[in-house]
Amino acid sequence: MTIRTPTRDLDHPTRDGIRLEGVLHALSDPVRLHVVRRLADADGELSCSDFDLPVSKSTTTHHFRVLRESGVISQLYRGTAKLNTLRRSDLDALFPGLLDSVLAGARSETDRSSGA
Amino acid sequence: MTIRTPTRDLDHPTRDGIRLEGVLHALSDPVRLHVVRRLADADGELSCSDFDLPVSKSTTTHHFRVLRESGVISQLYRGTAKLNTLRRSDLDALFPGLLDSVLAGARSETDRSSGA
DNA sequence: CTCGTAGTTTGACATCTGTCGTACTACGAT
DNA sequence: ATCGTAGTACGACAGATGTCAAACTACGAG
């Protein structure tokens, strides 16, 4: 029994490596903001294909990478799937209230445009 | 006495025209975030030249325009100067807590890198 | 009127960003 | 071993972005 391929893992910034500007930039894209909202609602692990994004597979990969590299989400492989989670505790520790106000803002903005 | 040249004014989005993604994008640039922080500290009107930005005059103009068009600041001419103010009440009404958490996050990040 | 100061405009430029299709790898199921 | 599904890698490409210098406009001071 050879050493198991260590389910090749991905580079994540450490908590201290998360930069505010990177987070804001990551959240400033509609597709990525949508992903983050879904992730916050689910409050669990979702694979990349659980999101029905209006972009191609390669673009999806790109957006998830931006989110991971900016420290907004963490990703890990399980089998053929890639599970995504919000790095809520890291974000809350570094930038208290930021994620919640962004999520609330996004929600109310959606309500404004759909409702009246 | 002819009608005074109406101190040519600038296009600002109305409160309802301010988009979350635009605000996040505007805040995700170091130069612009710096401007916003100074503006929040001063809590008053500052002319563009009150900031000692590490970029040229034309780039400065560009950044102030991005901030204005995204709804983060308002600008008005007074004589030869252009006065800038944070649109705090609009932002707080639309995205409660967002501006404060960004400002606090920026402050703590600065402290982390300079302090220890 | 003339000058200086504040900011704009224009055009250029390199880089970044979001997007795609196609070919590829990794893993689980059969 | 083979196949299908999940996701990646690699160009490619158009458009946005941050940057500058140089020429310009607008206003106040003298």
Description of the structure:
The structure is a homodimer of 116-residue chains. In chain A, 50% of the residues lie in helices and 12% in strands. Chain A is an alpha+beta fold. Chain A has one domain: Arc Repressor Mutant, subunit A. In chain A, strands 1-3-2 form a three-stranded antiparallel sheet. In chain A, a hairpin with a 2-residue loop joins strand 2 and strand 3. Chain A is globular, with a radius of gyration of 15 Å. Chains A and B meet through helix 1 and helix 5 of A and helix 1 and helix 5 of B.
Task: Describe the secondary structure blueprint for this structure.
Two copies of one chain form a homodimer.
Chain A: H1 20-27, H2 30-42, E1 46-47, H3 57-69, E2 73-78, E3 81-86, H4 88-94, H5 98-114
Antiparallel strand pairs in A: 1-3, 2-3
Chain A binds a DNA duplex (30 and 30 nucleotides) through helix 3.
Structural class of chain A: alpha+beta
- Ranges of chain A where pLDDT stays below 50 over 5 or more residues in a row are 1-6
Instruction: Give the helices and strands of chain A as they follow along the chain.
Output: HHEHEEHH
The protein's oligomeric status is homodimer
What's the CATH C level of chain A? Mainly Alpha
Terminal Cα separation of chain A, in Å?
Answer: 63 Å
CATH superfamily assignment of chain A? Answer: Winged helix-like DNA-binding domain superfamily/Winged helix DNA-binding domain
Mean residue pLDDT of chain A: 92
Beta-strand share of residues of chain A: 5-15%
**What topology, given as strand order, has the largest sheet of chain A?**
1-3-2
Overall form of chain A: globular
Give the tally of β-strands of chain A: 3
Query: Biggest interface: chains and residue counts?
Result: A-B, 26 and 26 residues
CATH architecture of chain A: Orthogonal Bundle
CATH topology of chain A: Arc Repressor Mutant, subunit A
Number of helices of chain A: 5
Helix content of chain A: 40-55%
Q: Compute the gyration radius of chain A: what is it?
A: 15 Å
Q: What does the largest sheet of chain A look like? A: 3 strands, antiparallel
| Domains of chain A, number | 1
